[in-house]
Amino acid sequence: MPSLLTIAVVVVNWNAGDYLKKCLQSLKAQTLKPSRVIVMDNASTDDSVQGLEVEFEGYEIVRLKENTGFAFANNLAVKRAENCDWIAFLNPDAFAAPDWLEKLAEAAENFPEFTSFGSHMLRYESDQLDGTGDVYHVCGSAWRRDHGIRASTVDRKTGEIFSPCAAASFIRKDHFEELGGFDENFFSYFEDVDLGFRFQLKGYRSLYVANAVVEHVGSATTSRYSDFAIYHGQRNLVWSYIRNMPGFWYYLPQHVLFNLAALIWFTLKGKPGPVFRAKWHALKGLSRVWELRKKTQQERSREASGVIDKMDRNFWAPYLRQGHD
User: Fold this and answer.
1) Minimal CA–CA distance to 36: which of 1, 102, 85?
2) pLDDT tens digit string along 28-51?
3) Residue at a domain's end among 194, 216, 238
4) Are residues 211 and 235 part of one domain?
5) Residues near 320 by Cβ (< 8 Å), separated by ≥ 6?
6) Which DSSP helix (H) or strand (E) runs through 11?
7) Which of 8, 122, 301, 307 has the fewest Cβ atoms surrounding its Cβ within 10 A?
8) Phi-psi region of 242 (alpha: psi -120 to 50; beta: other; left: phi over 0)
9) Is-contact 137 190, C-beta < 8 A?
10) CA-CA distance, 171 to 188, in Å (whole number)?
């Protein structure tokens, strides 16, 4: 039976090169056709959006005049999708299997108690996994479950996760808008974990869908260890912890320790500048984020213990894990 869901697929592009067309070609081949496909181009300086209107007739190509960031561009696209009930977010360097959208829609219809859905993400042209849902640790760190592990050795079943990776996720539009979407102060990096955290606080649940498959290049436009990625990732994880963590004072020592470890680790990697700037700017934004915290915690619907139960509490996990982003 065909899905009755109205779905907009959102792709935010910035200098993704040929990957963008490959991504859109994978959408064109979907067994379940979305109601809309919205491509937001963040003022790319390459030719990645050239000729898209001809090759992908009917897709909405929006060219922004400046790089507004991943969070802002996604939020803007969701506002444009006023006639859709569901949003599928797909990175321009992620290539969906033909039944990807169909499987996500089936999961949404079969599990109506869930608000957001994550994909089975494979590394592009590799036998390794890119991730099977996001893990959040009580110290404020987060990572993609199973990242870097050989796919043939993992047999994950569809099941509950903390949050989905925004590179290939499926979210109820009304709940996304209710919580204000991605935090635009983040610009990019960690905004999906932050949104997933806020979903958890409201009692909204997330499901990993084992048969909704994408291949993901990852860090196609910005290197994982670029100054840009380090700065935004390390700053934003502090802001997310401050705003959202229900056991704030109890777990604060672990958060401080993790941040100190990050300062040391990135310094040893020859990247002291971006990580020290990240932490300094995170502290400079403390008053703004603390005001957000007050509102977020007042509106929380789930007990603190219920949220913390969904986190990783193994003290050593953030330091011992290998192969994760």
Assistant:
1) 85
2) 999 999 999 999 999 999 999 999
3) 216
4) no
5) none
6) strand 7-13
7) 301
8) alpha
9) no
10) 18
* Closest-CA residue to 66 (of 45, 91, 92, 37): 45
Q: Give the residue from 190, 83, 211, 75 showing the smallest Cα distance to 144.
A: 190
Pair (167, 232) in one structural domain: no
Token output for 112 = 């109506």
CA distance 317 to 325: 13
Q: pLDDT tens digits for 288-313? A: 999 999 999 999 999 999 999 999 99
The confidence score (pLDDT) of residue 224 equals 66
Domain extent at residue 288:
227-320
Q: Which two tokens stand for residue 88?
A: 């599928």
* Residue % of the chain over a pLDDT of 90: 94
Q: Which CATH number do you get for residue 79?
A: 3.90.550.60
Report how many domains make up the chain. 2
Token code pair at residue 61: 């190509």
Residue that is written with structure tokens 């949404």 in the block: 108
Taking CA atoms, 23 is separated from 9, 89, 142, 168, 260, in Å, by: 11, 12, 26, 11, 38
Question: If we measure between CA atoms, which residue out of 168, 192, 204, 7 comes closest to residue 92?
Answer: 168
